[in-house]
Design goal:
This protein has helices at 17-29, 55-67, 96-106, 120-137, 142-153, 159-166, 170-179, 182-196; strands at 2-10, 38-41, 45-50, 73-81, 113-116. The chain is of the alpha+beta class. Helix 2 (55-67) runs antiparallel to helix 5 (142-153).
């Protein structure tokens, strides 16, 4: 089983690609090699293939990374299924994970994050949870997104260490995380991971 994330940058023309492209690439590079595991196509669209249990964490990383740049956002669809054919480029690979990701992406209207797994009950549960999480995530300021980006990048570091790294007080970091609903979003990530973690 694999997860495929299909996404695009919302309002990509509002900022030069030189601002957001390195941010996106740095996150995608944590999950594998280009172009076999990830690829940026048509200027502002991208695909990433990874293990199902890691997909939501990666989506949160991408969301926070892009939201650091004022006026930008990202739409993403997670498809979970098989990878029946592995090509040299992810854009030429196929299987049910790719089909579900593509179909889910086509059906994203105003919602910026969706999932399709082939299990209707699971899809309904997660799409509802995502829509609730997005009420907070879509309103992340650049400051909140920057703080969350660092916490997602270095999950092993303490708040004190990250405060020193960012040259900020621990209380201002704590406040930014609270405003961004970080604890609740990580509870959702944990709930998701348990559902997709292989025994």
């Amino acid at each position: 089983m694999k997860a495929v994330i299909t996404g695009d940058i919302v309002n990509s023309r509002a900022e030069p690609a030189a601002h957001w492209l390195p941010v996106l690439k740095e996150i995608l590079e944590q999950y594998g090699q280009e172009p076999q595991e990830w690829e940026i196509t048509r200027g502002d669209s991208f695909q990433l293939i990874l293990d199902p249990e890691e997909a939501l964490y990666a989506a949160f990383q991408i969301k926070a990374g892009i939201k650091q740049l004022s006026g930008l956002d990202v739409r993403m669809a997670i498809g979970i299924g098989e990878q029946e054919y592995k090509a040299r480029k992810i854009s030429e690979s196929n299987g049910s994970a790719f089909i579900r990701s593509g179909e889910c992406f086509e059906n994203l209207k105003k919602q910026h994050l969706g999932i399709r797994t082939g299990d209707q009950e699971k899809d309904e549960t997660f799409n509802l949870l995502f829509s609730l999480a997005l009420l907070t995530m879509n309103n992340w300021s650049a400051t909140v997104a920057k703080t969350i980006t660092v916490f997602l990048k270095f999950p092993e570091k303490s708040q004190t260490e990250l405060a020193q790294q960012l040259n900020k007080s621990q209380s201002s970091l704590s406040e930014a995380l609270k405003r961004g609903g970080f604890d609740e979003i990580m509870q959702l990530e944990d709930f998701y991971r348990k559902k997709f973690d292989r025994p």
